[in-house]
């Protein structure tokens, strides 16, 4: 599928990235909703399972409630992914092919994600709060007003450090793994990449996503605590100490299966769609 023959080729990754993000964010929002509720601090909230949260949400509201937080998710993901893919493409074109080593690809992935995160970060905070069971009576506008009235503009950047600590290595590890696996597949004559392109693309994305999700899981849990209950968890150090004291190291694994499942699905779908749109 050709993105557009009338548009400059430099804009194709921007449009393809945004389009793939819109589709994947909408499809997999329920997984993000459930992950946030599994991860959020449990003081005053009974510990619940994926099944009980899903059942309660559907019974008390409707199945559409599982998509709560979709609006800020789209505001974050669509421009963020468009910028991410655009920057990756720019970096790939600027760096000679001979210098695109595994390490360089990792740095490129991290840099592109870092810039994209900074551009759309406030929506990450709003999304997390809408998904949390602590803010069930508030809508997006109410949360924006609350954050601004209490913390000012800097309040929208609560949890930035753990988010960068999660997303930079995730994107770095993911992109270098993706490029490496893609090179292996494309040079392996026993694997008919062209004939089974979608299957191969999905496998590469899933494998890279699993590795990156595992390495960055602790930062994701810390981010959720900081964004959902910033008054109780004023900084990363306090949050880390609380989790270790209360749950032990296993506490950093909270929501991992949901996150890994979602991230690998998102990565596989987004990169497959992205590559398809550019073809």
UniProtKB/TrEMBL annotation:
It holds the Pfam family Mito_carr. Belongs to the mitochondrial carrier (TC 2.A.29) family. One of its GO terms (molecular function) is glycine transmembrane transporter activity. Its main location: membrane. SUPFAM superfamilies: Mitochondrial carrier. One of its GO terms (cellular component) is membrane. It comes from Rotaria sordida. One of its GO terms (biological process) is glycine import into mitochondrion. Transmembrane segments: none annotated. Keywords: Membrane, Repeat, Transmembrane, Transport. It is a multi-pass membrane protein. This is Solute carrier family 25 member 38 homolog. Solcar repeats lie at residues 8-94, 100-184, 200-279. InterPro entries: MCP (IPR002067), MCP_dom_sf (IPR023395), MCP_transmembrane (IPR018108). It is found in: Membrane.
């Amino acid at each position: 599928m050709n993105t557009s023959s009338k548009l400059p080729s430099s804009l194709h990754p921007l449009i393809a990235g945004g389009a793939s993000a819109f589709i994947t964010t909408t499809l997999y929002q329920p997984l993000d909703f459930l992950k946030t509720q599994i991860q959020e601090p449990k003081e005053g909230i009974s510990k619940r399972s994926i099944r009980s949260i899903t059942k309660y949400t559907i019974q008390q509201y409707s199945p559409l409630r599982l998509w709560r937080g979709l609006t800020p998710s789209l505001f974050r993901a669509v421009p963020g992914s468009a910028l991410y893919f655009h920057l990756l493409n720019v970096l790939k074109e600027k760096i000679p092919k001979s210098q695109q080593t595994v390490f360089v690809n990792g740095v490129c992935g991290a840099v592109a994600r870092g810039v994209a995160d900074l551009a759309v970060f406030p929506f990450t905070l709003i999304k997390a709060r809408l998904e949390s069971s602590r803010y069930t009576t508030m809508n997006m506008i109410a949360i924006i007003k609350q954050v601004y009235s209490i913390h000012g503009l800097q309040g929208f950047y609560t949890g930035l450090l753990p988010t960068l600590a999660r997303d930079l290595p995730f994107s770095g590890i993911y992109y270098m793994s993706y490029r490496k696996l893609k090179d292996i597949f494309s040079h392996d004559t026993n694997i008919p990449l062209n004939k089974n392109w979608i299957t191969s693309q999905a496998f590469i994305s899933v494998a890279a996503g699993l590795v990156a999700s595992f390495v960055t899981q602790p930062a994701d849990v810390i981010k959720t605590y900081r964004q959902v209950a910033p008054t109780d968890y004023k900084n990363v150090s306090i949050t880390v100490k609380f989790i270790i004291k209360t749950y032990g190291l296993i506490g950093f694994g909270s929501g991992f299966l949901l996150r890994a499942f979602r991230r690998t699905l998102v990565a596989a779908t987004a990169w497959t769609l992205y590559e398809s749109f550019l073809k």
